[in-house]
Amino acid sequence: MERQHILPIMYDLAVVIGGETSLKPLLDRTLQRLLYYTSFPAGFICLDIPDCSDEVGEMSVRIDAAVGDYDLLGLVGKEVSLPRALLCGSAVREADHPALLAALPSAHAHYKSYLRLPIDGRGVLILLAQQMPETQLPLEQMLQPVMALLSKAILLCRSSDAYAKSLIEARDHAEAQVHQLAFYDPLTGLSNRRLLMDRLKQAFASSARSARHGALLFLDLDNFKTLNDTKGHDIGDLLLIEVAERLKSCVREGYTVARLGGDEFVVVLESLSALAAEAAAQAELVAEKVRDKLNEPYMLKEHIHYTSPSIGIVMFRGHQDSLDNLLKYADSAMYQAKTEGRNAIRFYDPEMQAAIEARADIEDELRQALDKQQFRLHYQIQVDSLGRPLGAEVLLRWEHPVRGLVSPAQFIPLAEDTGLIVPIGLWVLQTACAQLKAWQQDAMTRDLTLAVNVSAGQFRQPDFVAQVQSVLLESGAKPSLLKLELTESMVLKNVEDTITKMREIKLLGVSFSMDDFGTGYSSLQYLKRLPLDQIKIDQSFVRDVTSDPNDAAIVQTIIAMTQALGLNVIAEGVETAAQRDFLDKHGCHAFQGYLFSKPVPLEQFAASLR
Ligand SMILES: Nc1nc2c(ncn2[C@@H]2O[C@H](COP(=O)(O)O[C@H]3[C@@H](O)[C@H](n4cnc5c(=O)[nH]c(N)nc54)O[C@@H]3COP(=O)(O)O)[C@@H](O)[C@H]2O)c(=O)[nH]1
């Protein structure tokens, strides 16, 4: 280093130091530049030296940067024990101190000379050489301002590194959150559908390789909706969280447990036996464990709650079927478990699948039937002992463009399950009332009554009374000519609510008939409290009333009971004159059945009156 070069060198060092924003490159590049300008071959930097007041003995320091010596480079970031006399004190150039430098954990034990430059209270920079490089310059004093600048730069770089670190941490955190949201259910922390599909793909591949079976368990909680509706969604959420925990506890670590949404969960079992029967038994065992675990009571805030799962199982081996199909099969098996009494476990069966798909098709078409005006009402006459018309029961028919006339026995249960019975039932009521109004104009029809079947789902609508009232008002039908038919089973489900609603409707002037009487479990206790007008003897008792003494006795008892309660009685399913005569003789003077007419379209019914 020549005297005339000092200023450009100082300038260059200042540029290097001022140009760095991160600690590691700052230390490395400063060291490199100093070695270059001073002709020392190697050097290192230790920051944050603990206590440098004393120069006796050794101290433990960390090597923060090293250049020019492979052994020293290997020590970067590590703690080493070095003589205090080497590290502490003011800037100094020492030419012959092999003992001090021998303490350096370096293979180059031949270093004898060093230049020590304290970094303004922040640490020390030591340059090493075998022999002191030639120079007339006072390096210690000359480099003092450079070290002061380096000290400040270290401070700045440290805070810049801390900031960069916090940015990286924030980005990592955000990425982790995005990953969590993309693949996990936020409520339970279980895998979501996306991750489930991915895991299933892997399970298929591993099953194909190992020839072992796997199983997919599809679970749905029984009556979860009721809990949500009655206790609120936060309590429902607590149940789902607890169910997720219990599911995880039932399966081996690493098995996939997923929530598809709502109260639907999936468990994937892998590496079951290669023998189909044995694998199915293993899957069933896990399903039973899951069912038992989920049957245990739940403490949801201060509520004790019980629930049960319906579980569908589908087995797989390799890639026999698509993922979507597999899920569909497991879902249909679960559905089967549900319809067979809940808290049950069912394996997938292809025949069952076909039935479910057919049902789904009908459901789609049923949804459109109202809009497409495919419903019709048929009228089945009700007569007295002399065969005079009293009125009719309206019976719904679905005129399907391809299937033909579909029986209500086929579609009413489906309409009830899907809730479609509410709009369909309203249409029946509106059409029947419009007909009553139309009959008002004609002396022959003005006193005829119309009986309309009401389903449980329809009757349980909170605004059912208002619906009846507005249909009557809109149609202008006489309420006394409208008779609503309820069944025993629906009436007895919630007796108090039923009685209240029936009373309100009776106040409108409408009457009630109890359909299918004798097939349910009506107790006399309830029967006498219900504001009924009529009881309809079920056709199953009428069928053999003349040949089966038991049916004859039942029918006589029902008639006697209606007389005791002051109710009307009508018999349905009357097909023969003998049945009619028996009923008439024992006090039942109103009849409905094929003996008089089958249910027929309106025009035919009107014609039969003439
Ligand atoms: N909620 C509603 N339910 C309805 C409505 N329309 C019909 N239904 C219910 O569907 C079930 C099947 O009805 P359907 O096929 O019309 O059968 C009725 C009659 O055709 C049949 N019947 C009448 N007389 C005889 C007879 O002499 N023999 C014989 N074998 N069958 C006969 O009985 C059915 C009448 O049933 P009921 O209602 O119990 O009086 C049926 O449960 C209907 O209730 C609707 O609009 N809404």
UniProtKB/TrEMBL annotation:
Catalytic reactions of this protein: 3',3'-c-di-GMP + H2O = 5'-phosphoguanylyl(3'->5')guanosine + H(+)
Membrane-crossing segments per the record: none
Coiled-coil region: none
UniProt GO MF annotations: cyclic-guanylate-specific phosphodiesterase activity
Species this chain originates from: Ferrigenium kumadai
Any one of the GO BP annotations: cellular response to nitric oxide
Name used for this protein in its record: Diguanylate cyclase/phosphodiesterase
UniProt domain EAL: residue ranges: 359-610
Organism lineage string: Bacteria, Pseudomonadati, Pseudomonadota, Betaproteobacteria, Nitrosomonadales
NCBIfam families with a match to the protein in the record: GGDEF
Annotated InterPro entries: Biofilm_reg_signaling (IPR052155), EAL_dom (IPR001633), EAL_sf (IPR035919), GGDEF_dom (IPR000160), Nucleotide_cyclase (IPR029787), Rev_trsase/Diguanyl_cyclase (IPR043128)
Pfam families with a match to the protein in the record: EAL (PF00563), GGDEF (PF00990)
Ranges where the GGDEF domain occurs: 212-350
